[in-house]
Amino acid sequence: MADSVVQAILDATRDPHVRESMLLGSRLESSWNPNAVGDNGTSFGPFQIHLPAHPGVTAAQAQNPAWATRYMLSAYQRGAAAQPASLWQSNPERAAEQAAVAAEAPAESYYSGRGAETVHAAWRSTVSALGGHAPADGATPGAGAGGGGTAQNAGLFDFGLGGLVSAIAVPFAMIAQPFAEIGTLLTWWWTNRMKVAFIAVGVVFFIIGLVFFAKDNL
Is 38 helix (H, G, I), strand (E, B) or coil? Predict the structure, then answer.
């Protein structure tokens, strides 16, 4: 039965990141069991599609590997695309887990809810299903720069060139922000300068009128 789920995913997409994400997500959700039932009889199939949240889906459809994979494909495509390229390169397990979280929308991440070791085991199964190697350039499953801790910890350090550039750019962006706001204010003033001038003149005449009124009543 697990083979039918794996094959359905491999048939549905050739994108290596989407394959990794769907294999990992369905492994964590159902252990690749197309007949899995969870959430007190409300979630079905390899991706544990929650029927109350998907009223147009039947249990039979959710338990059909090919149908369920096609149904979930777009959500996983969005989830995989949302992960930085640097994360896919440095820690594909973490990237695939985050993509699966985005697609499946569990109450908490799989690292938090299932534990790092469970995710590591599911990733090893994923890599095995892909022929013993991840198609994306990546680290050893579950290993980060330190070679030891969890993928969560590795993700904090193995952020690659893109992360380094972002880390350098953020302080400069913060410094530039006030100047950008000043520029926006000046642009608004120039666009509305006639209105501002009329308002200013009106305020001046109002103040003058108050002065004369005060003199006449003292």
Answer: strand
Whether pTM exceeds 0.70: no
Residue with tokens 């544990």: 48
**What is the C-alpha separation between 6 and 81, in angstroms, rounded?**
21
Convert the pLDDT of each residue in 37-86 to its tens digit: 999 999 999 999 999 999 999 999 999 999 999 999 999 999 999 999 99
Q: Which two tokens mark 218?
A: 């003292």
Cα 66 to the center of its chain, rounded Å: 25
Beta-bridge partners for 49:
44
Strand-pairing partners, residue 37, are 44
- Cβ-proximal residues to 90 (8 Å cutoff; 6+ apart), any chain: 138, 139, 144, 145, 154, 155, 158, 159, 160
- 107-130 pLDDT, tens per residue? 999 999 999 999 999 999 999 999
Residues in the chain: 218
Question: What is the arrangement of strands in the sheet containing 37-38, beginning at the earlier edge strand?
Answer: 37-38, 43-44, 49-50
User: What DSSP designation does 158 have?
Assistant: -
- CA–CA distance, 186 with 127 (Å, rounded to integer): 56
Rounded CA separation 11/6 (Å): 9
Tokens of 181: 């706001």
